[in-house]
Design a protein that fits this description.
412 residues, alpha/beta, Rossmann fold, 7-stranded mixed β-sheet
Length: 412
């Protein structure tokens, strides 16, 4: 595809899985790409924590070469290798946070009210442990089916709910998916190598006459790259969409985009769409906006290096002053931060409220993940909150534990 034009476009006939690796944009197919950030060796996954420190230190790593399409503004990792990413034992569950539970409840309620999802069938692809699916089924009295190879029945509350969980990849040989009124897919599209083939498969499987709505959620490129959160540039996320490039991607694959924009403190993008026989491309790239985006990203590599130097210096000064340090939050930002600073200090504790991560070790740098209550014995002088979005909640939890540490958020 060398040009984008307005007007009706038929549903594409073929997938384009190798475009990015062959030097063309995943979204628009253009070949005018510019590299703006290179990280030579980073942990390949943040959703896996390891049973031993030795395994964590030897965890798979990969190279990040972030390229910007100068035609549409999409950004992606030119060196991404999907074979390095696996989902057995994968867990990035956030439902232990009250703040996150509120976000999910409000999201489920909005989808139910906006699209009349009551007494309907909801399909979730990459459902994780099923928290969102259980929430939307409970909210609207819906029937649910969730696909995820990482799913395991751990006694979650499904009383009174009609939900089937299939611990398989969607389309990978599990029970056949039913006709769905709402198809949800959260935090998966940006990980896939063949995003085009995945969307085409969905488009072909859904009859436009049924009125099925799709809800997708991905990381927000503006929040991470443009405003720049260096610790959130992780290997798993091979694609960084803006609201505009995400909408255009869906339109080019035969969907009518109903809404697209930031959600959850702007950390994510939410997109709602319906399949259509022909669609009007309403999200064509604005050359001036793409040029402005390129200018903003030009200095990202130096900003990354400055952030690393600043935090190295801060932590060194704290230790020289005899102050003990702990991190709170063992997710992507913690792994990205520790990896970027090269901190393999086994004595540095990382607290997390997710019990599935506790007692295990972080990929690449090998820190032990502990329950927050363990900080009572450690008595840190400084707690670094790795995800600033949860800083207020964590300060409250630290106070409830009787900790008197200084609490700072990990910024850029």
């Amino acid at each position: 595809m060398n040009a984008l034009t307005e007007g009706p476009h038929p549903v594409p006939a073929t997938s384009r899985p190798a475009l990015w690796h062959s030097g063309r944009c995943t979204v628009c197919g253009h070949d005018d790409l510019r590299e703006f950030l290179h990280l030579p060796a980073v942990p390949a996954q943040d959703g896996l924590v390891w049973p031993t420190r030795e395994e964590a230190l030897a965890a798979p790593s990969g190279e990040i070469r972030l390229m910007l399409c100068r035609r549409c503004g999409y950004a992606g990792n030119r060196s991404y290798d999907a074979a390095r990413v696996r989902f057995a034992g994968y867990d990035v569950s956030l439902e232990y946070s009250g703040q996150y539970r509120t976000f999910v409840r409000e999201l489920a309620a909005r989808l139910v009210e906006t699209y009349g999802v009551r007494g309907k069938t909801v399909l979730e692809i990459a459902c994780g442990k099923g928290f969102f699916l259980r929430t939307i089924c409970r909210t609207g009295g819906n029937r649910g089916i969730g696909y995820d190879p990482a799913y395991a029945d751990e006694g979650s509350d499904t009383e009174g709910l009609d939900i089937t969980f299939v611990p398989e990849y969607y389309g990978g040989g599990g029970a056949p998916a039913p006709d769905a009124d709402l198809i949800c897919c959260r935090q998966l599209l940006d990980i896939l190598d063949d995003q085009s083939g995945f969307l085409l498969g969905l488009r072909r499987s859904v009859d436009p006459a049924r009125g099925t709505v799709l809800f997708f959620e991905t990381p927000n490129a503006d929040a991470t790259l443009t405003r720049f959160t260096p610790w959130n540039v992780v290997y798993e996320h091979c694609s960084w969409f803006t609201a505009e490039t995400l909408a255009l991607f869906f339109e080019l694959h035969g969907f009518d985009v109903l809404a697209a924009g930031p959600c959850n403190n702007d950390e994510y993008l939410c997109l709602e769409a319906r399949p259509a026989g022909q669609v009007l491309l309403r999200h064509l790239p604005d050359p001036a906006a793409v040029a402005a985006r390129e200018a903003e990203l030009t200095g990202v590599a130096e900003r990354f290096a400055c952030a690393v130097r600043r935090w190295r210096g801060l932590l060194a000064r704290e230790r020289e002053a005899g102050r003990s340090i702990a991190l709170w939050g063992a997710g992507a930002r913690a792994i990205g931060f520790l990896s970027a600073l090269g901190l393999r200090d086994a004595s540095l504790p990382v607290a997390d409220i997710n019990p599935r991560r506790q007692g295990r070790f972080l990929a690449g740098t090998g820190q032990l993940v502990v329950a927050p209550v363990a900080l009572r014995d450690i008595r840190p002088d400084l707690i670094v909150v790795t995800n600033p979005a949860y800083a207020t909640e964590i300060r409250t939890q630290a106070g409830a534990l009787g900790l008197h540490a200084e609490v700072v958020a990990l910024d850029a």
